[in-house]
From TrEMBL:
<keyword id="KW-0999">Mitochondrion inner membrane</keyword>
<feature type="compositionally biased region" description="Basic and acidic residues">
    <location>
        <begin position="95"/>
        <end position="105"/>
    </location>
</feature>
<feature type="compositionally biased region" description="Basic and acidic residues">
    <location>
        <begin position="126"/>
        <end position="153"/>
    </location>
</feature>
<dbReference type="Pfam" id="PF05071">
    <property type="entry name" value="NDUFA12"/>
</dbReference>
<protein>
    <recommendedName>
        <fullName>NADH dehydrogenase [ubiquinone] 1 alpha subcomplex subunit 12</fullName>
    </recommendedName>
</protein>
<keyword id="KW-0496">Mitochondrion</keyword>
<feature type="region of interest" description="Disordered">
    <location>
        <begin position="95"/>
        <end position="180"/>
    </location>
</feature>
<comment type="function">
    <text>Accessory subunit of the mitochondrial membrane respiratory chain NADH dehydrogenase (Complex I), that is believed not to be involved in catalysis. Complex I functions in the transfer of electrons from NADH to the respiratory chain. The immediate electron acceptor for the enzyme is believed to be ubiquinone.</text>
</comment>
<keyword id="KW-0472">Membrane</keyword>
<keyword id="KW-0679">Respiratory chain</keyword>
<dbReference type="InterPro" id="IPR007763">
    <property type="entry name" value="NDUFA12"/>
</dbReference>
<keyword id="KW-0813">Transport</keyword>
<keyword id="KW-0249">Electron transport</keyword>
<feature type="compositionally biased region" description="Polar residues">
    <location>
        <begin position="162"/>
        <end position="172"/>
    </location>
</feature>
<comment type="similarity">
    <text>Belongs to the complex I NDUFA12 subunit family.</text>
</comment>
């Protein structure tokens, strides 16, 4: 109980103000006497919105930085972010102008989408509707020719067994069928 009371009392006694960010969030730290480790935390100005904390302060809170970011450093980084944002906008504008100059003679396709697979052999397995009788007949003819090809390959002298048998010289792929 005294350990808990010591922690609660320590919150009010030994906290030190480290800094504040542009949104008004305040950052504090204190040394834990029990753990001998610096504890860091933020007090939000408005509602608790972790997305309002700048990256540099997040790094300090997580212990990735030993020193807290200075206001000068924050101003420099904000200016750099603004320059990058403007450069990105400029590059997008140049890219759009370049595409417009190339003209519309090219076929425009959506980025990230490829043509679909060839599905004719897949569709053949489904029953055709009343309009697709010709496709069904062609499919049946193709199936029959395939069956004739396989029948000529099958050796009729060997009895069908439940397990494949024979030596390597008599092996023919696709001739063995499991019992049905």
């Amino acid at each position: 109980m005294s350990r808990l009371w010591g922690r609660v009392a320590g919150l009010f006694r030994s906290k030190s103000f480290i800094g504040a960010d542009m949104t008004g969030n305040k950052y504090f730290s204190r040394m834990e006497q029990i753990d001998v480790k610096e504890k860091r935390w933020v007090v939000f100005r408005r509602e608790e919105d972790p997305t309002s904390i700048p990256v540099e302060w997040i790094c300090w809170l997580n212990g990735q930085r030993k020193r807290a970011p200075t206001p000068e450093e924050m101003a420099e980084l904000d200016a750099r972010r603004e320059r990058v944002r403007l450069n990105v906008a400029l590059l997008k504008k140049e890219e759009e102008e370049k595409k417009a100059k190339e003209g519309t003679g090219r076929k425009i396709t959506s980025i990230g989408k490829a043509e679909g697979p060839e599905l004719t052999s897949f569709v053949r397995h489904f029953p055709a509707d009343s309009k697709g009788d010709k496709a069904e007949e062609a499919s049946k003819e193709a199936d029959q020719s395939r069956v004739k090809e396989h029948e000529s390959e099958i050796v009729t002298a060997e009895p069908k067994t439940t397990e494949p048998s024979g030596s390597g010289s008599s092996f023919r792929p696709g001739t063995w069928q499991p019992p049905s």
